Amino acid sequence: MTGAPFIGSRDQPQAWTPWLRHLAADMLDCALRPVIDGAHAEALLASAALLDDGTALPRQHPQEDGRGFALRAALVATAEALLQRPDPATDSQRWRLSAQAFALACELMELPGTAPSEANLAQMRHALGLMASEPPDRLAADMRRYRDEPLELLVDAPLQVRLAAAAWRLASDGMASLAAVASLLEQDESSFAGRLQRVMVWASPPADDRSEEALLRSIARFRSLESVLLPMAEAESPAAALATMERLLPPWLGQAVMPLWMDDDGYLTLHGGSDLAGQRLRCQGSLSLAAKAIAGGELTVQQLAAGPAAGARVPDTSVTATVFDRQCAERLGASALVAVPVGAPQPIAVLLTSADAKPEDLQFVAVHVDRWLQRLAGQERRLRHEAAGQRAEFMRRVREAAHEISNPLSVIHNCIYLLGTRIDGDDPGQEQVRLISEELRRAASLLRALSEDDSPGAGAADGAEDPGDVNALVSEVLALIERSLGPDVAVEVRFTPGIDLPAVAILDQRLHQVLLNLARNALEAMPDGGILDVVVDQAVNARGRPGVEIRVSDTGAGIDPTLLPHIFESGVSVKGEGRGLGLAITSRLVHELGGEVSCRSRLGSGTSFVVWLPAA
Hints:
Strand order of the largest sheet: 3-2-1-6-5-4
Helix content: 40-55%
Oligomer: single chain
Mean pLDDT: 77
């Protein structure tokens, strides 16, 4: 049988150079794919290992360091080394001979009817020179040692040794060795030739019009971008990393860039220094270019068509860009916009820039930016995991402390009960005993809530989430406040109950605690006396939802305007000015009830807190 001349014959070394360039180009292309194929990358590196003079290439598993950036870097470095070899024709011949022999061996290993195992393939790679390390066992060493032996001396050798020698001879001598190989493997020459034809014929290297110089320029540009974007490694959050990228990238790319980050709730948020920063885009159902790039997972270009002209009678049937896309294009000074998804198969960001940028440069950008964003995302996941573990440990200690505190509270409660039995029913001391007992029961209820659940606000009270009487609850709290006032405290307590109030779903103990905190803070704001005024009324919030409003006002000194915006923040104390640390807890409890709390204050004129609760 005759066929196309076999390119791999030993007397044609000049034909190997295009194959070497093709291997380098394949490595560079593999390094720039959105999702790096780890198996293909490792195979490419293994193919080049015999040119490495026994020196192992430094590389990591594809899942490490920003979705395999170390593996990408190894591919780029190896491609560069291949293109800079001093004797490319000889190197190409060595590589292609081994690669062709292995391809033939894979076909020959199917002849016995059993698919080759991973162990068989590993032995064959070592035997045929595709692995720079020593053979893994004696059989692989024998396969390498005897692969050049005359075929007639291998008739009684183990099958694996014969297969390696047959593949090596076919790769070296082409179809001229077909008869001898068929005899060695006990195959019919005619059917054997037909089976090998598809593997044997290599008329020319795969088409690739990139020269060695062009590939080296691409590698140099890849390296330069790695250096330019290195400050992203110092960012503490994805937003900070994107801001750094937005500042550093334009001089290298020749175009300005607008970055969008994928939020946890599935929205894209524009970051950076643009006046559009903070704009959020839906990813599902949106016509924006960024959303299309997210959905398709690939670079997306759109020519920008203006909207229908004012007064136009014929509607414009061309693809019309969204207003947001046109705004971005205007800021970028671009007539056509390109969206570059970062991260695959699930993008975590999108970069918008002018379509004038080179596609290869945009691939470089996506790979490098993904490296740092993935690292930051991984750090955030680890921090959240650690925070969850710390919170679980903290809540465990809280539950233990609550359990221990409950014991002395029970003893105190019993002693108060016994004390009450010794006081006459009409004695004023009975009221004080009742007051102490109620507060002990409330404290015990809060401690039980901590012992039973660690979710925010869960079990914070014994009361059910049923509509309650807000007027009655306010009256109860104010009565408690009045009974706690000493004889020298000149504070007047006023209460204006609401009329025809809508039903409000409340947890009695939570709202009780809110009102108690606000009332006590009001008293502390009036050490020399004043008026504590509480008003309950119907109210509608800013979103038009009906509910009940409770206003707790005092005539104290007021709050410093510089502290007013921060009074509900944890750790902010203005007690010396008339407010305590309980306001952070108050704010949290109100929000757990589905409500809102605000504050109005003026120095010298007092302060008013407004609690709004939604109607049930």
